[in-house]
Amino acid sequence: MSQIRITKALSHYGICSRRDAELLIAKNRVKVNNHVLDSPIYFVNDEDVIHVDDVIVSKPSKILLWKYFKPKRVITSHKDNFGRTTLFEILPKNIGRIISVGRLDYNTEGLILLTNNGDLARKLELPATKLKRIYLCKAYGIMPKNMIQELLLGIKIDNIQYGPIFVEVYKKQNSNTWYRIKLYEGKNNEIRKVFAHFNSQVNRLIRTDYGNFSSKNMIAKSLIEIEYKEFAKLYKQETELQKN
């Protein structure tokens, strides 16, 4: 690895995002060669020894990506101030240090991607990458066709602009309706907020697909490693990720 900024190195090694790396440095929690950093404008290479909270940062031998089926009532975080179960405490202990590609909210279940490489995580979660997210959504009542058409153009709710949302009726179940929803970004609680805007309550929300990755045949807490050649070729990352 040629010289790169310390924040990028910490992200690349799966420690945290670049923004969180800046916060760690501001709190004097990062050392390079036993020198406490006070600025994120610092460059490192393969010969440098990096510590975070006095624990040496091990450099992953290769880039890894997994599919995981998150259960309901699990928060996508390393810790929670309210004592709720977190995603990273229920993962297998031998998986090593990893980060999630985006988040699923507490009551949403289904597919979430995990990786040991922060640059890959950032690439996969950016809206500019245009990876589809597909959900099955169970909600009370049925959404009128004119509202479904309105969502195709995007919608602004509480001063937040949401991109196009593709909604189709999947099946009806008593007083509820299951929808298949496709979107290309993942703003916080987006689907729940959109349905609430139309006076409809979401009772269950399951993410089934992220890009070309599917949760087919997966059950709660299923963890499947994705072959490197599959995601490297798909996102044209092979050369870039090996160089950075």
From TrEMBL:
GO terms for biological process: enzyme-directed rRNA pseudouridine synthesis. Its EC number is 5.4.99.-. PROSITE patterns: PSI_RSU (PS01149), S4 (PS50889). Pfam families: PseudoU_synth_2, S4. It comes from Candidatus Aquarickettsia rohweri. This is Pseudouridine synthase. It catalyses: uridine(2604) in 23S rRNA = pseudouridine(2604) in 23S rRNA; a uridine in RNA = a pseudouridine in RNA; uridine(35) in tRNA(Tyr) = pseudouridine(35) in tRNA(Tyr). GO terms for molecular function: 23S rRNA pseudouridine(2604) synthase activity; RNA binding.
